Amino acid sequence: MAEDNRRARGQAMRRKLMGEEYAKKLDANVYQDPIMQKFAEVTQECVFGSLWTREGLDLKTRSLICVISDAATGRTPELVLHLRFARNQGWTEDELAEALLHLAGYVGAPLVREAMLTATEVFKEMRAEG
Asked: What is the maximum span of the chain, computed from C-alpha positions, in angstroms?
């Protein structure tokens, strides 16, 4: 697959996962910097254009994997994005809260508390957006 095609597929997948308006917001606020533009190029091609477009798992499952990974490793900025992806792929607030709570026995209450606080803010923001 040509690099340009993979990047274009990745850009489309990214917009699908996070929603067009949120993607525009990130592009305007984060990815105008030349260094961050380089990061965007790589992630659009390699992460969104290769990993997210693979067969074998549906997008809903992939989004939950990301939420769990972020919460378990304390990656709060990424958790914000991936909670949004998960909601956009059909996970409910309650299902995501239960998935995070389930982690408490495996990664500890402090990480789960932080993830739950993050989820509360993301869900509130998404409800306000409509």
From this structure: 45
